[in-house]
Amino acid sequence: MRNNHSLHQIREGKPSLGLWFTSGSYMLARYLAMQGCMDWLMIDGEHSPLDLSTMSLLASVVADASQGKCTPYIRVAAGTVDQIKQALDAGAQGVLVPMVNTAQEVRDIVSFSRYPPQGVRGNGGLMPHLGFAASRSEYTVKSNSEITVAIQVETQESVNNIEEIVTVPGLDMVFIGPNDLHISYGYAPSFWSDAPGFRTAVDKVLSTCKRVGMPCGILMGNAAQAKARVEEGFTFVGIGGDTGYLVGAVGAAYSYITGAPDPAGGWGAYVRKDIQ
User: Fold this and answer.
1) Residue 129 a catalytic site member
2) Domains along the chain?
3) End-to-end CA, the chain
4) What is the pTM of this model?
């Protein structure tokens, strides 16, 4: 049975770098997975209009094209049993659950994500074991240790409850959602800033995770921000999104040729200053 490459990286304290995937294009997912430079792709099932069939296709393409070296994750819309079960049955090798506020919510999420005796997930679906290149019976026995269960901290309530959240058995990772965390503290949405409330919240979450040995992740808007987060101790870091880089590269080329200025907060923020 294939290992969950990204999960083993963060368990060992090694940086795991990936990309937020919002386009829904299986060809683009395949191209990215085949390059060998991404440890994971996060398929956004919360905001993108992806049906279960599309998510199944994306998850299997990523796992197979990368030969297990790029882990397909799905960010679900909510931490309910149907959302989590469908994502895992679609072939995801991990789930990221947004807007989690309490330790009890985390306990429920873990239970929905694990087979007995750790959880209540039912045995079903033909897709999951194929992504791990295993028989169905082997997958059922071993998947509890190979499926990543992660939650997003993006509210003041979740920051206040972080001490209890990180102690829930079966939780693999805490992931900071920076845009919504900014909003929760009354700031404009942003991947990173010096806003005091935001920075205090991030420091509290990261330091708590480090103290108990819980991997901590975050999504950044560009490569420079991502590199800085790795240096600070984040072990699961998103370096941006597929559509952002695509639009950024095209826009940067257009501006370079025509001399047209970048739009405010637009494509230059993704590519020109950080990649070239």
Assistant:
1) no
2) 5-242 (3.20.20.60)
3) 39
4) 0.92
